[in-house]
Amino acid sequence: MTVVSEPTCRTDALITLRHDWSRDEVLVLFELPFPELLFRAAQVHRAHFDPAEVQVSTLLSVKTGGCPEDCSYCPQAQRYHTGVTAQKLMSTQAVLERAQAAKDAGASRFCMGAAWRSPADRDIPKVAEMIRGVKALGLETCATLGMLGDGQAQSLKDAGLDYYNHNLDTAPEFYGEVIHTRAYQDRLDTLSQVRDAGLKTCCGGIVGMGESREQRAGLLHALATLPAHPDSVPINRLVKVAGTPLADDESLAELDPFEFARTIAVARLLMPRSMVRLSAGREQMSDELQALCFIAGANSIFHGEKLLTTGNPGVDRDQALFVRLGLRAMGMPGKVDNAAHTMTNPGKTVQRAVACDAISTATLGVRSDSCAACPTIMP
Ligand code: SF4
Q1: Is the shortest distance between the CB of 71 and ligand 1 below 6 Å?
Q2: What is the 3-state secondary structure (H, E, C) of 174-234?
Q3: What distance in Å separates the CA atoms of residue 4 and residue 235, rounded to the nearest whole number?
Q4: Percentage of the chain with pLDDT > 70?
Q5: Contact, 309 vs 328, CB < 8 A?
Q6: Cα-atom radius of gyration of the chain, to the nearest Å?
Q7: Considering only CA atoms, which of 206, 203, 253 is closest in space to residue 227?
Q8: Could you tell me the pLDDT band of residue 309, with boundaries at 50, 70 and 90?
Q9: Which of 68, 112, 192, 321 has its CA at 20 to 30 Å from residue 183's CA atom?
Q10: pLDDT digits (tens, 9 = 90+) for 249-274
């Protein structure tokens, strides 16, 4: 039996980017005592990011349902009876209205998802028009459209796309338990096209689908040994949607919340400079679990009441959680001392008698019209 020593995660290792993790090393990290794992992940998080900042993205389904693929977790697969009604590609105008609303609610990145196996060439100019429009609003752009054919990644890049999302979903050896209509290698090929076009990659997976801890380690190992670490790593916790095979599997137990937090922590240790994103499944998480995940190195969330077709915490719940935890949306200046309802910017402190939009401004970037007239709002 090979003995794998514990990977070093201190001093120099805090800032070292590695692409040569062995799978056994990843598993050793998973098996650290929980407080030690979170402590190490928090150290690495601080070496690369301000731990009080969380990047906020919004995800919009621009083409819903009717997908020919058979992903066992997905309510948009046309072969499952989940109550999702297939819709055509949205108009650019409608997408831009939603993007503006997302920006007004504090999002800095706007992701557009389409339930396609892969986009037809005739769809690319329509999506490109959306990307140009969203970009013109001052938002980062991300798209998830399925597998990409030759030249499509470049066309999206030319339109101003910043990120392309394409998840590995799970470990290579568990993949066939979940998806049968395309291969792991297809996913790797699309990621390769995305990188070659100079797009940033958003790539993660789903946990809680019945995989073992070894297979969760396998997913993170696959992500961390890609030629470049994904810029964003969404970690989804399975949402069981009635009508999908995984929801109908009564033997499938809920993933232990601590195991989910472990997964976040190991992702942070393996990919120190990536944005580790809490994605699907957040609505079902307690505030306490989300707080543990932020400690473990998660620094990105999807914001808004829907994630494609599944639920997501409401804006109010997120705002309240950010205030309770003293977090703020990435890119927003200032700090919030919620106990005193005090906001501090360099050289300027404003005392608020009551919570108001100023708190929202610092936490999620929300600024209402009344803020403009407020004598105490900071520049
Ligand atoms: S996850 Fe994507 S590719 Fe799979 S069925 Fe759903 S929409 Fe289709």
Answers
A1: yes
A2: HHHHHCCCCCHHHHHHHHHHHHHCCCEEECCEEECCCCCHHHHHHHHHHHHCCCCCCCEEE
A3: 26
A4: 80
A5: no
A6: 21
A7: 203
A8: low
A9: 112
A10: 888 999 999 999 999 999 999 999 99
Mean pLDDT of 179-198: 96
Q: Tokens 């056994």 label which residue?
A: 24
* Ligand 1 lined by 74 (C-beta under 6 Å): yes
State if residue 7 touches ligand 1 by the CB under 6 angstroms criterion: no
374 is catalytic: no
Single-letter code of the amino acid located at 284: Q
Residue 14 has pLDDT above 70, yes or no: no
31 pLDDT more than 70: yes
Half-sphere CA count of 269, side-chain side, radius 13 A: 31
Q: Which of 171, 210, 207 is nearest to 187 (CA)?
A: 171
* Cα 272 to Cα 267: distance, rounded to the nearest angstrom: 8
From the candidates 71, 109, 203, 367, which is the catalytic residue?
A: 71
pTM: 0.84
3-class secondary-structure state, position 112: strand
Please give the angle made by the CA atoms of 221, 292 and 330, to the nearest 5 degrees: 85
Which helix (H) or strand (E) covers residue 14, if one does? helix 12-15
Q: Are 197 and 167 in contact (CB under 8 A)?
A: no
